[in-house]
Structure formats: structure tokens, C-alpha cells
Write a sequence for this structure.
């Protein structure tokens, strides 16, 4: 037998050890996976930030170069206007104006294609290099001319276009970007408005953009104006032909910064940098695929690191599981002995956690034994309370007075009153007996209360009035029987008794938020504040004229059946009256619910059966009428 027990303990030991090792391994692997994912995500984020930052830096440098180039074009336009055109008269100084324009052109011929001056009618006033203007080019309809005349205070940069104003002997056409502005021209002493046109060589801007569009990972840069019109794009021909698309309209509305964008089903980062003086947008596009291209080596490194750490943890887990399982085995043996009927001391040893577990088990066993004793004691108290309630149903003093009243009614010839009182007394005792049941309908309890009060009114010669305000939905729910009579008796004896026909008692019933409230309110003498708190706590405070049940007993019976959150609530002020409220759960009266409650089960809302009385559940009032 001893060997068999040892073998069982050994198997338990192996099971615990295996379980611990598997658990630790799963936890360790999970932590490693989480760590690996976190590391990978962190490295990815750092790599992404580095790519974005390097792109921003490159775009800043390119933007500065573009700004320098555009500033130089603006300086050429300023020099042509302020140094050559503004202080000269075209009628008498045309040769000097031409020489001045020629000097500017020769000094910047690497970046310039032409400089031209037009009057407000679109007629050519001067141009450099000297060339013949094409026949009727309709200058006033050119975009650069219209923009300049509409916004005279600004300088205007056009999108790339082919210069078609002048004839070229070699029949060559150049891509240019036009810088136009309104200028003041003087001819024969009269001032008029005109437009100064500076055509920049587009190839200079194209070369700057080509230098940064060298990435082979899908990353690229393009240039657009404030309206989203493309100035430079490495696939500009395909875009103009409708073969490719670019989200330049949206980029033109972005402020400087980094944005996440989904375009044509692909996610990408968009970096925007505004070029000063022009409103142009330098846009860098980084597809998300570019971020993952450099992460392959990092993935391999993380995987190798995780494998190495998992091997180390497997060895450590083995040692830890063996160390933990030994004291657990001894704790298990002592628990098995306890369950076999013995009462040994539970093993308390091993690590701090195992010692605490052993102590908790020992404490739990002790608490269970104490709870069992308390349950037995509570059941005994409950039975005793129910016995007291049954014994107090027929109060000899009350019965004697009622029969004595019936006797003098008969002797006085008041047969109808005597018959009425006998009927009420019969109903009273029929409901009091209730076939030995403890749980009855609230409607029956109210009928019992009416019968009781009808008898008391006759005995007291109608020295008080009773009114009832009870919601009909309340009457079909469960209640402990004989909870209203003791409260009504107290209201008569210690409330309205001796008030000379001015006493009033009101019985109310309502349902709110799944609870039922039955209230007895009187306008009697009231109770001092220091005594109100003792009415439900001091069981020895039974009045000499009371029913024998008492408020304490009623409160205890309700709480035993329904729980500590229910019971009586008492409010009273001297010379103002007393208000006693019964709070119970709203449990529909069915035979099944009644049986469960009488067996001591506390019903929750999900255990309720039915929402109305069953057809066979005849009320005590119906039985009386039958």
C-alpha cells in the first residue's frame, strides 16, 4: 500500500513538473515572440524614421537649390526692370534698353532663353537675344501675360512649356518656365503698363530633379505648382498621355510635413516641402515596400537571437520546475490525507508562495468548518423564527377581545355587524393558516390586513380610518405571510390609539426597479429618534400589547428568505407619525417559486418562473368566496 501511494505521488510529481515546464516554456516562448515582434517593430520604426529623415534632408537641400535658382531669376527680372526699363524712354533710348538687356542675357545665358518686354496691347517693345517675333502670336492670351495683368503686385512662375514667341533660324524649340511681372513703361514721356517676360531654361530644373531621382526602391520626387499642375515628374510623358496618374492635386493642398497616403490601392509616405516665392511643392513619395527592403538581415538576426534565448530558457525552466514541484508534492500529500478523513496539519514549506498556499489551504479548511457551523445555526434560527411566527398567528388576547365584541353585538341586537365581524375573523384565520405555507401572494396578505383592520375598527368604534393605495401588479408577487399585521397592530396601539377619530392609517404598495415596497403610514404620536434605530436591532423590545411577532422578527424572517439587502425601513418623528416600509424582491407567485423559497432558496432574476400566478393558484379570497 505504501509503495502504491508512493507511485501515485511520483506520477503526480511528474505531472506537476511537466505542467510547470510546459507552462514556463509557453510563457517564455510567448515573451520571446512578443519581444521579437517588439524589436522588429522598433527596428522597422527606426529604419522608417531614418529613411523619412534622410528624404527630408535631401528635399531640403534640393529645395534650397531650387530657391537659389528662382531667386537668381527674380534678380535678373529686378535688374531688367529697375536698372534698364524703368528709368528709360523707349522712344528715345531703345538702343540703350536693348544693350542693357543684352548684357543681362550674356551674363546669364546658361540659365536664360530670352528676355522680352511687351506693352499693354501685347506689342513687343524689346527682346534679347535679338530675334524676329512670330507673326501674330496673340500675346494677350498667353497664360503668363494674363496672370501678370490680373495680379500686378506679384511675380508669376508658369508651368513648363515650349517657347513659341520667336522664330529660330535653326528651327529649334526649347522647354522654358516663364517669369512674368507687370512693369511701368515710358514712351515719349508717357507712362503705360507692360509685361516683362523672363524665360528660364527648364533643363536646369530638370537636372536638379534628375539628380535626386536615382533610387531603385520605388522612391521618387516630383515638383508641382500650387494648383497641382506637374512641373517635373520622372514619368511626366506617361502622365500627360494619361497612361500614369499622380496625386498632385492632393499634394498641392498639403502643408509642409509628412503624410500617410493610399493611392491606387498602395500605401505610401508623402513628404511635402514648399518652394519659397512660387508656391511650388517639392513632393517626395516613399512606398511602404521601400521600408521593408532593408529589414531582411534584421529579421535573420532577431530569429537567431530568439532561438538562442529559447534554448537557454528551456534549461532554466527545467531547473525551476523541479525546484517548485517538490514542495507542491508534499502539500498535495497532506491535502490527500485530509480528504481521506484524517486531520493532519497541512504542509507549509518551500518557497514563499508555496508556504502561503499551504497556509491559505489550512485557513480555508478552518473557515469551511466554521461556515458549516454557522449555516446549521442559521437554519436553526430560521426554523425557530418560523415557529415563533406560527405560534403568534392566533393571539389569545386579540381572539378574546374579538369574540367578546361579537357577543355584545349579538346581545345588543346588532346581528349584521356580528355576522360581518365573524366573516372577517374567518377570513383572517383562513389566511393565517394558509395550508401551512410560509409564502403567500401579496394579494392574500393584503386581504388578511383588511380583515384584521376591519375587526379592529369595529372594536375601536371607528376611531380611525384606513386607506389602501396598492398597484394591482404588486398583488401577484410573493411575500412572507403575516408581515403587515404586526406593523398595523403597532400603528393602532402606539400610533393612532386615543386620537379621538382623527387617526389615519394608510397602506401603500408599489413596484420599482425589480423591488416591491409595502408601506404602513400613520399620523400618530411618532417615535423618538434615539428609539427608531433600536427597533430593528434590539430583539428584546417587545411591547406588552404587541402581536408577539414584533418588528425584529418580521425583519429577520424577510432577510432569511430574501437576503440582507431587504427588510424593514422605519421613519418617524414625534407628533408627526411613523412610516414603516417593507422592501422585498419582485418575485412572481408561482407554485415552483413558492416551493423554492420555502426550501430556503434565494431566487435571482434569471431563476424566476413565470410572470403571473398559475391558473391553479387560487387566492385565499377566492377560496373564501367559494
Amino acid at each position: 500500500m505504501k509503495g502504491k501511494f508512493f507511485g501515485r505521488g511520483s506520477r503526480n510529481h511528474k505531472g506537476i513538473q511537466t505542467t510547470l515546464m510546459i507552462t514556463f516554456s509557453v510563457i517564455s516562448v510567448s515573451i520571446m515572440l512578443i519581444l521579437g515582434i517588439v524589436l522588429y517593430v522598433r527596428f522597422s520604426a527606426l529604419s522608417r524614421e531614418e529613411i523619412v529623415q534622410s528624404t527630408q534632408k535631401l528635399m531640403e537641400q534640393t529645395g534650397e537649390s531650387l530657391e537659389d535658382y528662382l531667386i537668381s531669376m527674380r534678380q535678373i527680372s529686378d535688374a531688367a526692370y529697375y536698372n534698364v526699363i524703368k528709368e528709360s524712354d523707349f522712344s528715345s533710348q531703345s538702343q540703350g534698353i536693348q544693350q542693357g538687356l543684352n548684357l543681362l542675357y550674356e551674363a546669364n545665358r546658361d540659365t536664360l532663353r530670352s528676355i522680352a518686354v511687351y506693352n499693354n496691347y501685347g506689342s513687343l517693345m524689346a527682346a534679347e537675344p535679338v530675334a524676329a517675333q512670330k507673326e501674330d502670336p496673340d500675346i494677350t492670351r498667353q497664360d503668363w501675360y494674363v496672370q501678370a495683368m490680373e495680379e500686378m503686385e506679384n511675380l508669376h512662375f508658369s508651368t513648363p512649356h515650349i517657347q513659341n514667341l520667336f522664330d529660330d533660324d535653326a528651327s529649334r524649340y526649347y522647354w522654358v518656365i516663364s517669369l512674368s511681372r507687370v512693369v511701368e513703361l515710358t514712351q515719349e514721356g508717357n507712362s503705360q503698363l507692360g509685361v516683362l517676360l523672363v524665360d528660364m531654361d527648364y533643363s536646369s530644373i530638370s537636372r536638379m530633379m534628375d539628380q535626386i531621382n536615382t533610387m531603385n526602391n520605388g522612391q521618387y520626387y516630383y515638383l508641382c505648382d500650387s494648383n497641382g499642375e506637374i512641373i517635373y515628374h520622372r514619368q511626366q510623358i506617361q502622365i500627360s498621355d494619361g497612361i500614369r496618374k499622380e496625386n498632385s492635386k492632393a499634394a498641392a493642398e498639403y502643408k509642409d510635413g509628412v503624410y500617410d497616403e493610399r493611392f491606387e490601392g498602395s500605401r505610401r509616405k508623402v513628404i511635402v516641402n514648399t518652394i519659397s516665392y512660387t508656391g511650388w511643392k517639392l513632393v517626395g513619395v516613399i512606398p511602404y515596400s521601400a521600408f521593408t527592403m532593408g529589414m531582411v538581415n534584421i529579421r535573420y538576426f532577431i530569429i537567431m537571437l530568439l532561438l538562442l534565448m529559447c534554448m537557454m530558457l528551456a534549461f532554466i525552466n527545467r531547473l525551476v520546475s523541479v525546484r517548485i514541484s517538490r514542495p507542491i508534492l508534499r502539500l498535495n500529500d497532506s491535502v490527500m490525507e485530509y480528504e481521506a478523513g484524517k486531520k493532519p496539519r497541512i504542509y507549509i514549506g518551500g518557497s514563499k508562495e508555496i508556504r502561503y498556499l499551504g497556509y491559505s489551504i489550512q485557513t480555508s479548511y478552518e473557515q469551511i468548518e466554521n461556515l458549516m457551523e454557522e449555516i446549521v445555526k442559521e437554519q436553526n434560527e430560521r426554523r425557530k423564527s418560523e415557529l415563533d411566527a406560527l405560534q403568534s398567528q392566533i393571539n389569545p388576547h386579540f381572539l378574546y377581545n374579538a369574540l367578546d365584541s361579537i357577543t355584545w353585538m349579538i346581545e345588543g341586537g346588532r346581528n349584521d355587524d356580528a355576522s360581518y365581524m365573524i366573516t372577517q375573523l374567518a377570513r383572517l384565520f383562513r389566511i393565517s393558516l394558509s395550508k401551512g405555507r410560509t409564502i403567500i401572494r401579496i394579494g392574500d396578505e393584503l386581504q388578511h390586513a383588511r380583515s384584521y383592520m376591519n375587526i379592529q375598527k369595529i372594536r375601536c368604534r371607528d376611531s380611525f380610518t384606513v386607506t389602501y393605495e396598492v398597484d394591482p401588479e404588486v398583488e401577484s408577487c410573493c411575500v412572507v405571510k403575516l408581515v403587515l399585521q404586526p406593523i398595523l397592530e403597532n400603528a393602532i396601539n402606539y400610533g393612532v390609539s386615543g386620537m379621538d377619530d382623527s387617526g389615519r392609517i394608510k397602506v401603500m404598495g408599489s413596484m420599482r426597479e425589480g423591488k416591491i415596497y409595502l408601506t404602513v403610514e400613520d399620523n400618530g404620536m411618532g417615535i423618538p429618534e434615539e428609539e427608531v434605530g433600536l427597533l430593528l436591532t434590539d430583539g428584546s423590545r417587545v411591547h406588552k400589547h404587541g402581536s408577539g411577532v414584533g418588528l425584529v422578527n418580521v425583519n429577520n424572517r424577510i432577510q432569511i428568505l430574501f437576503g440582507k439587502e431587504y427588510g424593514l425601513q422605519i421613519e418617524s418623528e414625534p407628533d408627526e407619525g411613523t412610516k414603516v416600509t417593507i422592501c422585498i424582491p419582485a418575485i412572481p407567485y408561482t407554485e415552483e417559486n413558492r416551493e423554492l423559497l420555502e426550501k430556503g432558496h434565494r431566487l435571482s432574476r434569471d431563476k424566476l418562473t413565470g410572470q403571473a400566478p398559475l391558473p391553479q393558484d387560487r387566492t385565499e379570497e377566492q377560496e373564501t368566496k367559494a
The longest strand covers residues 175-187. Residues 2-85 form the longest helix (84 residues).
